[in-house]
Backbone:
């Protein structure tokens, strides 16, 4: 749900920028931006390729450069700075672990792994950390705002 909301935000901002620059098919590129948003950290590169190419053929290299700069600025700020924090908060994973999981699952399963990085990490966490009481020490390293268990015995008075 969080990825969809941020995908819509990025798509609307991208469409507005492309309309302002006079790029044809701005709505199509907005839909591509929304769809590519589901691939964390590298999805915007996939969505970035067609608009500057079209801008180059429509208005030359200056327009293509402007499209690239504006499109990249919007996507980097939203997808690389703001979105990982909200995704991590929504699923209970730190931003660092979310990024590491993207690299790991992308390496293991390729593009499908990049798309499924957060769900696969949550599955691994549930199977390896949450289920076994002896691995509770790893909880604060993985999850956000999870205090370590107290080492004091319970008070029986």
Residues:
């Amino acid at each position: 749900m969080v990825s969809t909301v941020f995908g819509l935000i990025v798509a609307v901002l991208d469409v507005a920028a492309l309309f302002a620059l006079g790029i044809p098919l701005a709505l199509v590129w907005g839909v591509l931006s929304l769809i590519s948003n589901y691939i964390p950290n590298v999805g915007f590169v996939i969505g970035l390729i067609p608009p500057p190419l079209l801008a180059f053929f429509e208005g030359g290299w200056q327009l293509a450069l402007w499209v690239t700069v504006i499109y990249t600025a919007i996507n980097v700020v939203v997808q690389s700075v703001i979105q990982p924090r909200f995704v991590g908060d929504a699923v209970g994973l730190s931003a660092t672990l979310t990024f590491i999981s993207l690299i790991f699952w992308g390496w293991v399963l390729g593009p499908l792994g990049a798309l499924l990085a957060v769900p696969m990490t949550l599955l691994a966490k549930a199977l390896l950390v949450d289920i076994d009481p002896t691995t509770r020490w790893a909880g604060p390293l993985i999850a956000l705002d999870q205090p370590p268990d107290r080492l004091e015995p319970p008070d029986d008075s």
